Amino acid sequence: QQQVKQSPQSLIVQKGGIPIINCAYENTAFDYFPWYQQFPGKGPALLIAIRPDVSEKKEGRFTISFNKSAKQFSLHIMDSQPGDSATYFCAASFTGTASKLTFGTGTRLQVTL
Amino acid sequence: KAGVTQTPRYLIKTRGQQVTLSCSPISGHRSVSWYQQTPGQGLQFLFEYFSETQRNKGNFPGRFSGRQFSNSRSEMNVSTLELGDSALYLCASSLSGRASGETQYFGPGTRLLVL
Predict the structure, then answer these.
(1) Residues 6 or more apart from A47 whose CB is under 8 A from it?
(2) What's the pLDDT score for residue A71?
């Protein structure tokens, strides 16, 4: 049973554009929502994370928006660059099992010149 | 500080064989988790070890097993390999694996191909 749904599967934007990746979760016990970035041949790396008591979090060009009532959260990449081309995964976990991440299916982002 | 290391990086096996993958966590990290990544199923949690004990387990058959040593290094074993076991196997470590918001650091993975 997939507990975190992610869309779109792939995304192509021009340099400077603002790609948006969306995720929806089912388990209301989740209390930690990280986003991971993965480049080919590498393991996923934590990009930014949010808790459900916060509606928005910004770190550099990356912003998470969180809608607790809708059980949805999204990643926005401001002023996207070709170097942002990677696969992005949303994930969720809950207290006590923080090491057990439930991942979305991933979004392959390509930023063109 | 050195990151999570995994060996070997690539592995080719045939159906029916068994395989052992190794993971060395970041120094000081006591929780080690394993994930399977495939194009069709994405990233799926296999199991987590802490203090040499399996603490959490995902929905994988018993052919998938693991262990952790006193220095927190971990191994996972897959017996009677099937074609569907071809995947990237990722190891992640964290300090305790319990605290909400604790970052998991991933290794580069071991790519297993079963022929």
Answers:
(1) A34, A35, A36, A37, A59, A62, A75, A88
(2) 95
The answer to whether the CB atoms of A101 and B55 lie below 8 A apart is no
User: Which residues in chain A are closer than 8 Å to B108, comparing Cβ atoms?
Assistant: 41-43
B82-87 long-range contacts, CB within 8 A, separation 24+: B82/B15, B82/B114, B83/B15, B83/B114, B83/B115, B84/B114, B85/B112, B85/B114, B86/B38, B86/B112, B86/B113, B86/B114, B87/B36, B87/B37, B87/B38, B87/B111, B87/B112
Contacts of B31 in chain A (CB under 8 A): 99
User: For residue B47, what are its two tokens?
Assistant: 């199991």
User: Which residue from B minimizes the CA distance to A30?
Assistant: B100
Nearest CA in chain B to A101: B45
B102 touches A: beta carbon within 8 Å: yes
User: What digits encode the pLDDT tens for the residues B48-93?
Assistant: 999 999 999 999 999 999 999 999 999 999 999 999 999 999 999 9
C-alpha distances in Å from residue A98, one per residue of A29, B48, B89, B102: 12, 10, 19, 7
Cα–Cα dist A111/A99, whole Å: 31
